[in-house]
Design brief:
InterPro entries: BP-dep_ABC_trans_perm, MetI-like, MetI-like_sf. This protein has helices at about 5-30, 55-60, 65-95, 100-110, 115-130, 135-160, 165-175, 180-185, 190-205, 210-215, 225-230, 240-260, 260-275; strands spanning about 230-235, 235. It has about 280 residues and is mainly alpha-helical.
Length: about 280
């Protein structure tokens, strides 16, 4: 493949696009470090002068923040566990087992990703209310998994199809059952894809707001995204504390992506080139 002409132009374009995406993040961090009386000045400042930690002190002293962060961690880890527990066997079955209707099932999974969460909120609320799962971790984890499971199967299916069938056949000949083949032979070979799915499922579970608002009425199990909404009051918005809390909430997301970046990129790339 020939190198692109004028590489500096493509670099400049990529830099501009990246800067456009990072501008809201910078503005969030900047606002959290700005004195509350200077946040909504007529002439916005690009640099917070003078720097202040007042907004972070207000955010850290906010009642319920620690509980909300713990709730989000429990929900996100539960979403990852349930997504992998259901998604890996289903993706393996669609990738290896020849059965009637498998193509229709894949199409159904694609279609399941199209409706926005607001469309699913009311039916899920009715079902979980009848099952007694509202205001519980289990209910929120199950609701968030409806968003992550179709994505997980679609990503993992081509990755699992990329494993040589001869390895599985050899394990079956040696007396290993189908579950053992999946756990001992296949999964060690597709670690990047599994980690990518787990990382993105964690991010989806951590950032979900609508289900946390509709399926949990009290702060006992509500995630931190619902807590952010409490900074928006009837008589105004506490922008400094809101942006400081949003920055704190974003730190786990950044850490997860930084730690698993190589696996996430490698897993998504593998899933995109293997059909």
């Amino acid at each position: 493949m020939r190198p692109p002409r004028r590489p500096w132009l493509w670099t400049a374009l990529a830099t501009l696009i990246t800067a456009a995406f990072l501008l809201p993040v910078y503005w969030m961090v900047k606002t959290g470090l700005t004195r509350p009386d200077r946040i909504q000045t007529p002439d916005p400042q690009w640099a917070p002068t003078p720097l202040t930690g007042e907004n972070y002190s207000t955010a850290l002293g906010y009642e319920g923040l620690t509980r909300a962060l713990f709730n989000s961690l429990v929900i996100s880890c539960g979403v990852v566990a349930l997504t992998l527990l259901l998604g890996v066997p289903l993706a393996y079955a669609l990738a290896r087992i020849r059965m009637r209707g498998s193509g229709t099932m894949v199409l159904a999974l694609l279609v399941a990703q199209l409706p926005p969460a607001i469309v699913l909120a009311a039916p899920l609320f009715i079902l979980e209310r009848r099952a007694g799962l509202t205001d519980t971790y289990v209910g929120l984890i199950a609701a968030d998994t409806t968003l992550t499971l179709p994505f997980a199967v679609i990503v993992l299916r081509p990755v699992l199809r990329g494993v040589a069938p001869e390895l599985e056949e050899a394990a079956l000949v040696d007396g290993c059952g189908l579950p053992g083949v999946l756990l001992r032979v296949v999964l060690p070979l597709v670690v990047p894809g599994v980690v990518a799915t787990a990382g993105l499922s964690f991010l989806i579970g951590w950032g979900e707001f609508l289900f946390g608002l509709t399926l949990a009425e009290g702060p006992e199990v509500q995630p931190v995204t619902v807590l952010l909404n409490s900074f928006v009051g009837q008589h105004g918005t506490s922008w400094g504390a809101l942006m400081a809390t949003a920055t704190l909430v974003s730190i786990p997301v950044v850490c997860v992506f930084a730690v698993f970046q190589r696996f996430i990129v490698g897993g998504l790339t593998a899933g995109s080139v293997r059909g």
